[in-house]
Amino acid sequence: MDSCLGVEQDLDKATSKFNALSDRTNEELDRIIRQAECFRNIMSEQPPDSTLCYEQTLVLCDFAESLKKEVFEMSTEHRELHATVSRVGKSIDRHFVSDYTSVAPKAESFCSDTNRPIMEQAIAQHLYRQGLEEAGDVFVAEARVGPVERTCAFAVLQRCAASLADGDPAPALDWAQRRAHQLQHSPLPFALHTVHTLKVNDRKG
């Protein structure tokens, strides 16, 4: 019980920090969006092909500088949140002792006719959830594993993460667009659109 309470304290700190960061981020993003829309409305009233006056140039520069500063602060707070979350994992390791022998005293236990199919299913699901679909298909075929769930939410997110790591935001952007109503207060869609726009511009350049 004491171990659970020790982990719970670190978990409460991480949760509290996450909620505070989420609220502040949403407030700042709403403010930035309002400023951008205001500036866009002002610009829409300008005659076509007209140049910015000195005051408008100052406003635009101030807005860009403010946006750059805010993004830097968000990134810093996000890194600090990661450190807080990692402390939860360390707290778990510190308060609990991993004793896998109580789960499977003998390796031979996995080779029984009853347990082997379960183990093979677990391996196949792990491969698919890690986005290793080709490896999963080969394993399922060679081990003659029964039907395996391939479309779980975790597997989809892993594939999106793998595509982002390869520089392709399209799958993640498609995922976010299909959940727009759930992410209306999240900065994720804006970030993905930004990455997508930058990628398109790089191709044009």
Fold and architecture overview:
Helix content is 73%, strand content 0%. The protein is built from 7 helices and no strands. The chain has helices spanning 2-44, 54-95, 115-129, 133-143, 153-165, 170-177, 188-204. Helix 3 packs antiparallel against helix 4 and helix 5 (153-165) crosses helix 6. The N and C termini lie far apart (60 Å). The mean pLDDT is 79.
State the major sheet. Answer: none
- Indicate the proportion of strand residues: under 5%
Structural class, judged by helices and strands? mainly alpha
Query: How many β-strand stretches?
Result: 0
- From the alpha carbons, calculate the radius of gyration and give it in angstroms: 25 Å
Fraction in helix: over 70%
Give the SSE string: HHHHHHH
Low-confidence residue ranges: none
Shape type? flat
Quickly count the helices.
Answer: 7
Give the N-terminus to C-terminus distance in angstroms: 60 Å
What is the average of the pLDDT values? 79
Protein name: LisH domain-containing protein
Organism: Iphiclides podalirius (scarce swallowtail)
InterPro entries: Fyv10_fam (IPR045098), LisH (IPR006594)
How are the SSEs placed, and which strands pair?
Elements: H1 2-44, H2 54-95, H3 115-129, H4 133-143, H5 153-165, H6 170-177, H7 188-204
